[in-house]
Amino acid sequence: MSSNQSALISRPGPALDLGRIRADFPILKLQPGGKPLVYLDNAASSQMPQQVIDRLVRYQTTQHSNIHRAVHTLSEIATAEYEEARRKLARFINAREEREVIFTSGTTEAINLAMHGYGRKFIGAGDEIILTTLEHHANIVPWQMLAEEKGAKLRVVPINDAGELLIDEYEALFTTRTRLVGVAHVSNALGSVNPVKRMIAFARAHGVPVLVDGAQAVPHLQVDVQDLDCDFYAFSGHKLCGPTGIGVLYGKAALLERMQPFKGGGDMILSVTFEKTTYTVIPQKFEAGTPPIAAAIGLGAAVDYLSAIGMEAIGSHENGLLAYATAQLERMPGVRIIGTAAEKAAVLSFALDGVHPHDVGTLLNQDGVAVRTGHHCAQPVMQRYRVPATSRASFAFYNTMAEVDALVAGIRNVQKVFC
Amino acid sequence: MADTKSLYQEVILDHNRKPRNYGALAHASHKAEGHNPLCGDHLTVALNLEGERIAAIAFEGESCAICKASASMMTASVKGKTLPDAETLIQEFRDMATGQLDVGKQAHHLGRLTVFAGVRDLPTRVKCAILPWHTLHAALHSVADTSTESENDPMHAPIGDA
Fold first, then answer.
1. What is the DSSP string of A114-178?
2. Do B125 and A374 touch (CB under 8 A)?
3. Mutation target among A37, A137, A358, A387 for the B interface, most CBs of B within 10 A
């Protein structure tokens, strides 16, 4: 029966030279437990191509020093490479200016920066912040902390059963007290692509700034912050084939300039006396202390790598994987796909009747298939679907249709164990 | 990996499918709720003490197969046992699951509960197996609510100190 089912679903041909691409990723050659690694946990963290690994090695081997400080040659090289990485990231998301790209440790710190720098200065008692049911905890908790501190309120945009934001309800949430909108570009738990451009336009008409959590979007979509017209856009390097410990907060220059600093320290000042400190200009105002220089340069190499392949080709291949996997799982008895939005990106959350996601994860791992199981740091989404957790397969451009088949075979094995 | 396979063996799958002593216990003398916030597992253990003896015990909740089977086999093992005997099992089960007791080499009283020995090789699943035992321990010590992640939880200290 299983082979008949597979035969009914056509496997679209790959748009990318997967052989060549996969050869770039040394970790994909691993065979944990004697089975070829089928890595489908890319929404948690993607893998790193040799080009990025080599760039990190080259930096540490021949270019490392502290930046923005000494006049010696190495410091000048390190500073130039670090700032070149900022230029690459600015180009990657089409920022108007390089100084609109603030390096952070990741999406979480980027959102916390916006909360401290913008929220604590401009949001007060009785003000309202609009978030959505689909947010990752990283785009909930900082605003909750702010609301508690200031006496502000959170307003939450609901979703329908498919996992799509109810835009009418979003628009109805606006009041004269609305001060900020925080919205995920792509839901990490369900894969829904949210209509952020339309949402931003509506907020703009009400004079409300919008922060977009782009952690799950930048690896899959061509992101253009000018076209979106967002005020902030946050994302992480390690989901983008880059290192951990690096991420970006994009912000419109005029907004960043009005914000207060987040962390105090060296590199973010013009002058310091014990009576008064004068802060320097953006982006350095928000980059106190020695930043993760190597990681930033590595992330620059990662976006070079992705751009060379082309974000459009990447997105198209991933959509093919998602469509193929969705079609397979839809036909499997006892499998429920959680999140069926009309527009989705690279994430397939599912539940198996009578089997807890953690048992699914452990048994799939036995077949070499790495998926994420749990609440995905999105407990409001789990509550909405009345599940404690889901299993989540998430795809990257280096995944193959054969790996989707391995996932499907693995799910059948799980069902056999629990039948 | 062989240990993973052996973890999902028939006895565990059977207890997951048909958990023993599952449901509410009327007029329980001791009761506690256990949570693992990392995975959402939660269960309630209720029991009746008659003097030093566990006369009746039941559990209910939502959890993975490892947790549910562990709870089911736990209730079957401690029913009718004295408090000190139950405490010994709690301690030995925890030591087995965390790799401090080698059931093949050291003396113990775990009997069929040794089917859970393989969990020691799956660090992310150890807490699934232990949660029911924590909750039983909490119930016996009149702690109403326990979590694998709270600072004063047994997971963060030897179980006897909770």
1. HIIIIIHHH--TT-EEEEETT--GGGTHHHHHHHHHHT-EEEEE-B-TTS-B-HHHHHHT--TTE
2. no
3. A358
Secondary-structure class of domain A52-308 per CATH? alpha beta
Interchain proximity B125–A375, CB inside 8 Å = no
Q: Do B39 and A359 touch (CB under 8 A)?
A: no
Written as six digits, the tokens of A367 are: 């077949």
Confidence of residue B68 (pLDDT cuts 50, 70, 90): very high
Closest by alpha carbon to B136, among B75, B60, B68? B75
- Residue A381 in contact with partner chain B when CB distance is under 8 A: no
Catalytic site residue A377?
yes
Q: Which CATH number fits domain A2-30+310-418: 3.30.980.10, 3.90.1150.10, 3.30.1050.10, 3.40.50.2300?
A: 3.90.1150.10
Helix (H) or strand (E) holding B54: strand B53-62
Comparing A11-20, A313-322, B50-59, the range with the smallest average pLDDT is A11-20
Q: Cα–Cα distance between A171 and A155 in angstroms, integer?
A: 11
Q: In chain A, which among 352-371 make CB contacts under 8 A with chain B?
A: 355-359, 362-363, 365-366
pLDDT at B151 over 60: no
Reading the block at residue A401, the tokens are: 């249709």
User: Which tens digit of pLDDT belongs to each residue from B128-138?
Assistant: 999 999 999 99
Least confident of A169-173, A255-259, A385-389: A385-389
**pTM of the full structure:** 0.91
Domain coverage including residue B143:
2-149
Q: State how far residue A418 is from chain B, nearest Cα, in angstroms.
A: 7
Contact of B105 with B51, CB cutoff 8 Å: no
Among A33, A359, A417, the residue with its CB nearest the CB of B64 is A359
Q: Is A200 on the interface with B (CB under 8 A)?
A: no
Contact between residue B73 and residue B47 where contact means Cβ atoms under 8 Å apart? no
- Residue A262 predicted with pLDDT over 60: yes
More confident position, B12 or A33: B12
Please indicate whether, in this complex, the C-beta atoms of A359 and B1 are within 8 angstroms of each other: no
User: Does A382 touch chain B if contact means CB atoms closer than 8 Å?
Assistant: yes
Contact at CB, B39 and A374, closer than 8 angstroms? yes
| Beta-carbon contacts below 8 Å between A and B | 46
- Calculate mean pLDDT across residues B155-160: 37
- Given this model, what pLDDT does residue A9 score? 54
pLDDT at B160 over 60: no
As separate numbers, helices (DSSP H) first and strands (DSSP E) second, chain A gives: 16, 15
Local structure of A17: helix, strand or coil: coil
Catalytic annotation, pick one of A230, A241, A377, A419: A377
ipTM of the prediction: 0.83
Residue A374 to residue B40, Cβ atoms within 8 A: yes
Total domains in chain B come to 1
The answer on pLDDT for B1 being more than 80 is no
Quick check: B43 contacting A, CB < 8 Å? Answer: no
Determine the pLDDT at residue A384: 92
Question: In the prediction, which pLDDT does A266 show?
Answer: 86
Domain boundaries, chain A: 2-30+310-418, 52-308
A363 touches A324 (CB < 8 A): no
Residue B92 scores a pLDDT above 70? yes
